[in-house]
UniProtKB/TrEMBL annotation:
Pfam families: DDAH_eukar
InterPro entries membership: Amdntrnsf_FN0238
Name of the protein: Amidinotransferase
Domain of life: Bacteria
Length: 317
């Protein structure tokens, strides 16, 4: 099937993203306990790993820009924020001019929040309010943004897998403020370990959804979520545990100059079956980004891209 694409924006697929390019990248020891997706590389020095991550982020930004996605690229030269290249966990943006700032589970991840990023958004886009939930950290209540939640901006549903990083009290508060319906579930990887972030098992696009249905523990809940996605009219691509491990669920639909693109890692794309790729290409152009070093930290392309769902100011278009 040949897709019919246009450059018109979808509420699900932002035209812009925020990225943070790390100068001293390393897998975060504070998150390794509950992130089974993290890895190590004993063959390279710390300096070589950091340089590779810097280069991967640079090339990823260039590839997105070449596709017509607006990239706001910030640098992190600090040494205390090893996961800074994953900004989608500490803030999100929403149509109507709303921004949310989130409480983070690991202490060193709380240092990732940056006032200059929020000020850039206010300068370039119409921002009506900023709702800051980060004070919940004092009560050990956490909600790590669009890592903890996968948001269906069309149907107004927030899908969330329970974990240390997804507190239901914070989720309810977010959903009340931002007009989403929460759908919470328990999820585990192929080894039975709880999945740390919802966005490694699920990606919702305008006309499709990638989801590891077998990760959802309760059969009744699994069927309910599958039906909910089907009722939205989306083409549902069920991912295996192996594909989830390869980050096939950690992707994001964006709007480029020629229409919708799916930003996905090269590793994840290799894990997809030919028929799955063909089904995706009926909806989006596939944009693989090669980030093997950054994926050592347990996150992939979706984690690197904080979508900008805001209206640009006329002077910033």
């Amino acid at each position: 099937m040949t897709p019919t694409r246009s450059a018109a924006s979808s509420v699900q697929a932002p035209r812009g993203v925020v990225m943070i390019r790390p100068h001293h990248f390393t897998p975060n020891p504070q998150t390794a306990v509950d992130n089974a997706f993290q890895g190590t590389d004993s063959a390279r020095s710390a300096r070589a790993i950091a340089q590779a991550a810097y280069d991967e982020a640079t090339k990823a930004a260039e590839s997105l820009q070449a596709a017509g996605v607006r990239v706001h690229l910030f640098d992190d030269a600090g040494t205390t924020t090893p996961d800074s290249c994953f900004p989608n966990n500490w803030f999100s943006t929403h149509a109507g001019g709303h921004v949310a700032i989130y409480p983070m589970y690991s202490p060193n991840r709380r240092l990732e929040r940056r006032a200059d990023v929020i000020e850039m958004l206010k300068h370039n886009y119409r921002v009506q309010d900023v709702i800051d939930y980060s004070g919940l950290e004092q009560d050990d209540v956490f909600l790590e943004g669009t890592g903890a939640m996968v948001l269906d901006h069309v149907e107004r549903v927030a899908y969330a897998a329970r974990s240390h990083r997804t507190n239901e009290v914070a989720l309810e508060r977010f959903c009340t403020h931002f007009n989403f319906e929460p759908i919470v579930f328990d999820a585990a990887d192929g080894a039975g370990k709880p999945v740390y972030h919802t966005n490694v098992l699920m990606c919702i696009g305008t006309g499709f959804a990638l989801i590891g249905l077998d990760t959802i523990r309760l059969p009744a809940r699994r069927a309910e979520i599958e039906q909910r996605l089907a009722d939205s009219g989306r083409d549902i691509l069920d991912l295996s545990h192996r594909q989830i491990t390869e980050f096939a669920g950690n992707a994001i639909e964006l709007t480029g100059d020629q229409g919708p693109v799916l930003a996905i890692s090269a590793r994840a794309l290799r894990a997809l079956e030919p028929d799955q790729k063909a089904r995706l290409e009926a909806h989006v152009a596939l944009l693989p980004l090669d980030i093997p070093t950054i994926e050592l930290a347990g996150g992939s392309v979706r984690c690197m891209l904080a979508g900008v769902h805001l209206t640009p100011r006329p002077s910033a278009r």
